[in-house]
Write a structure and sequence with these properties.
8 helices, alpha+beta, 4-stranded mixed beta sheet, extended
Length: 336
């Protein structure tokens, strides 16, 4: 018998447990972005509601398909976005992450060169309003959590009534909602190493908590899959610039550089800047993008044509008008 796939497990899951986004799409938590997109396309073709609009399809089946398609769309929206997927993995403690992990965003250049970031680490602290009891009233000023048991003022309850008298046992603290603790934050340093892996965990100094390093996408630079130290950038040229060629300025990870583009360069051509990659161990690959000429809308094109025609007519008639004025002046002068 053939081995059951993850999608088979998903379609036959009848244990009543809430399915994860990975289960819904029938992929493993370690699935690549390409695998997730492929799984969603296959499921979308199978369960798209438009396929079940015929008269022979009963209403219950239509409702089930619509519900399944909606859950697939939500799952795909979550897992296809790298940042949303990271937050989902942290919340559900998958792919080696923990709920207590703190998310740290770094730019592409910060990840390449390494940096120090400040992490806002959450923690619980005793509610001062109820003295950690979670009950309503006023915190006893004569004891703490440690000395509460022997306190003669509140008799171990930690709180007193609002007027210093008897406390309503059913009343809860409005500040901590009866929990006895409130959320607080403190800042700690995080040393981001050079060229970290995406979603790499780094220990926060002086704490048991870890930070998850998320490198934000760069509009200018992108890593190469073939070489971990190579980076790619795009140089946009107009059709005229590509035709004539010349020297053009390019931004690298280490500053500005000049690249020479031969005349007649076509779209998609590449230039190599050696030792301008990550840590100067790799190269920077500059991809040439030849921009198409701007498209003029039909009404705009007609307006431009009329303006050009008007200018031509004005230029054609201007010398004639000038001659007439000179002749009129001269005739007038002779008559006087």
């Amino acid at each position: 018998m053939a081995a059951r796939t993850a999608r088979d497990e998903h379609e036959n899951n009848t244990n009543g447990e809430e399915e994860s986004c990975y289960d819904i799409l029938g992929v493993s938590p370690q699935a690549s972005e390409k695998e997730i997109r492929k799984a969603y396309r296959l499921l979308a073709l199978k369960y798209h509601p438009d396929k079940y609009r015929g008269p022979s399809d009963d209403e219950k089946k239509k409702a089930d398909v619509a519900k399944k398609f909606a859950s697939m769309t939500v799952a795909f929206d979550c897992l296809s976005d790298p940042l949303k997927r990271l937050k989902y993995d942290r919340e559900n403690a998958v792919n080696g992450l923990e709920k207590s992990d703190v998310l740290i965003n770094v730019t592409f250049k910060e990840s390449i060169n390494g940096c120090t970031k400040l992490a806002m680490v959450p923690f619980k602290t005793v509610c001062v309003k109820c003295n950690g009891t979670g009950k309503g009233g006023v915190a006893c000023a004569n004891c703490t959590v440690l000395t509460r048991g022997s306190c003669r003022t509140c008799f171990g309850k930690g709180v007193l009534g609002n007027n210093g008298g008897t406390m309503n046992e059913d009343e809860i603290c409005k500040k901590c909602k009866g929990i006895g603790a409130v959320d607080d934050f403190f800042q700690n340093r995080v040393e981001v190493p050079k060229n970290p892996k995406q979603n790499q965990r780094v220990k926060i100094q002086g704490r048991e908590t870890y930070a998850v390093i998320y490198t934000m996408p760069s509009k200018k630079f992108r890593k190469c899959h073939s070489n971990e130290h190579d980076v790619k950038t795009t140089l946009q040229l107009t059709a005229l610039e590509a035709k004539e060629g010349g020297f053009f300025e390019v931004e690298t990870l280490h500053g500005k550089e000049t690249v020479y583009v031969e005349d007649g360069t076509e779209d998609g051509a590449e230039k190599i800047l050696e030792k301008q990659g990550i840590e100067k161990k790799g190269n920077q690959i500059v991809s040439i993008e030849v921009l198409p000429p701007p498209v003029v809308e039909e009404d705009k094109e007609e307006e431009v044509c009329w303006r050009i025609l008007s200018i031509k007519r004005a230029l054609k008639m201007a010398p004639t008008r000038l001659v007439f004025r000179v002749r009129d002046s001269s005739v007038s002068g002779r008559a006087q």
